[in-house]
Amino acid sequence: xxxxxxxxxxxxxxxxxxxxxxxxxxxxxxxxxxxxxxxxxxxxxxxxxxxxxxxxxxxxxxxxxxxxxxxxxxxxxxxxxxxxxxxxxxxxxxxxxxxxxxxxxxxxxxxxxxxxxxx
Length: 119
What we know:
- The protein is an all-alpha fold.
- The chain has a single domain, classed as Oxygen-evolving enhancer protein 3 (PsbQ), four-helix up-down bundle (Four Helix Bundle (Hemerythrin (Met), subunit A), Up-down Bundle).
- Helices cover 87% and strands 0% of the residues.
- The chain contains six helices and no strands.
- Helix 3 (29-46) runs antiparallel to helix 6 and helix 5 (77-95) packs antiparallel against helix 6.
- The longest helix has 25 residues, at 50-74.
- The chain is elongated.
- The model has no long low-confidence stretch (mean pLDDT 87).
- Keywords: Signal.
- This is DUF4363 family protein.
């Protein structure tokens, strides 16, 4: 009984100290790589390096697919579905070399990732 109380107290303390933000507790280097990839893609889009942008998005999608199970646990259905839609739109915009649409798509992806991992 005493161990149970101790464990519950420790769990409550951890949640209280983390501000009930469990996303940061579970964020790994692979998750951080998704955020880094979005930032790198923004820079390449601004420089209009389209081949690099498409290659980076391929890598991002592979990493995203590997981390999708975790996003399904942490986020809502709408969030990771929106990321998938933005990835598809990004490929189309990159083929058309539309920097404005690519940047909007990357901002949406970054926002959804932020939503999943912080809320």
